[in-house]
Amino acid sequence: MGLFGFFKSSESPRRLDRDEKRIAREGSEKQRLALAADERTSQEILYYLAQNDPSKKVRKKVADNPSTPVQAGMFLSKDKEADIRLAMAHRLVKILPRLNEDGYGQLYAYAVQSLGMLALDEVLKVRKALSETLKDYAKTPPELAAQLAKDLAREVSEPILRFCMAVPDKDLLEILKSHPSNWAAEAIAGRQTVSAQVSEAVIDTGNARAGVILLSNEGAQITPNLLEVIVERAREYPEWHKPIASRKTLPPLMAQKLAAYVDKSIKKILVERSDLDRATIAEISTIIQRRMDFEEEKRKSINASDPLERAQKMFDARAITEDVLIDAVIMRDKDFVLACLALMARTKLSNIQKVFDVRAPKAICAICWHCGYSARLALTLQQYFGRVPHASLIYPRGGSDYPMPASELQWQLEVIGIP
Questions:
Q1: For the segment 250-273, what is each residue's pLDDT rounded down to a tens digit?
Q2: 3-state secondary structure (DSSP) of residue 241
Q3: pLDDT tens digits for range 112-135
Q4: CA distances (Å), 337 to each of 89, 223, 260, 385, 389, in order?
Q5: Separation CA 295–CA 277 (nearest Å)
Q6: Alpha carbon distance 96, 92 (integer Å)
Q7: Is residue 269 packed enough to be buried (19+ CB in 10 Å), middle (13-18) or exposed (0-12)?
Q8: Which sequence spans correspond to the domains of the chain?
Q9: Strands annotated E in 84-128
């Protein structure tokens, strides 16, 4: 079958004769319209009309004609009339699945090239028509899907980002990194399937709504390491608490961490989970009770208004444990926490305050390391009191270890002025 022999009408085609040639070159507009609309017209003539006819009405008929060869799309996709380009877009999208079959490689390439031009069309309705049609087509060419996904018009890119499975991960990652609007991350978070790498990039955007959508999406791959990061960051995003607590694959340790700072309604979800063992439920209950006791003790304390005295009293009793500090962080008792760190590090309170004022993540890690606390506490302090940007946070290695060598941590202490 030749290049012009594809998608002919089931009826017997007209032979290319002098009458067709004459009408195409010299006939009246009415005659050319009849020729352009007739499915029996030879494809060579339809190709000629697509490329050369001065009448937009004729070219529109050619675009609508099922017998028009795919190669004519190279001209019609660049036609000066938007309606003709739109008609060609509808036609190419309709035949694309059949062209994707074996044996039509060259015709498929023509169609994709024409669609690529239409995806850059200056008229929004042309690009929107492509997006709405291709979003549900599993075999959309990846380069075409990516092109539409990066369109700045929400009406074009959002359906592709949300529904089109042909968009490559590398393009989704690029969009998450650079797109100026929140809706892009939210659309990606709600895709039918989201890879682990893309899930991590969604969380890295800091978009709270996108995080909720991702956590509620059973098709999103969330690795144990990413889930640990999410649980840590969720301190800042109360709207994440419920979808985390309700997630089917929530490990017991993550449930315990979450219980440390969520409100009563979320704690109830955790305690009532049927997939957690009794020991985990008991531990969660203990954590909840400890939080309640801490708050009550703080309320009753005579020195509650003086965090420095409270810190000194606990230091003398050797009672400034990591759990005590975490409880205080959850209660936003910043002055008490900084006073405890100063006492444990045996340095001036002003040195500790300066580190948190300048949002220095490495210095915060060094202080916690010097005091004998875990990198997990250091991360919590970076997030809550250090106000360190997400991109600059230093995360634990292996769950609790510091990712920096001791020599670097020691150097940070020397800069701060801690011997």
A1: 888 888 888 878 888 888 888 888
A2: helix
A3: 888 999 999 899 999 999 999 899
A4: 63, 32, 17, 9, 20
A5: 28
A6: 6
A7: middle
A8: 1-118, 304-416
A9: none
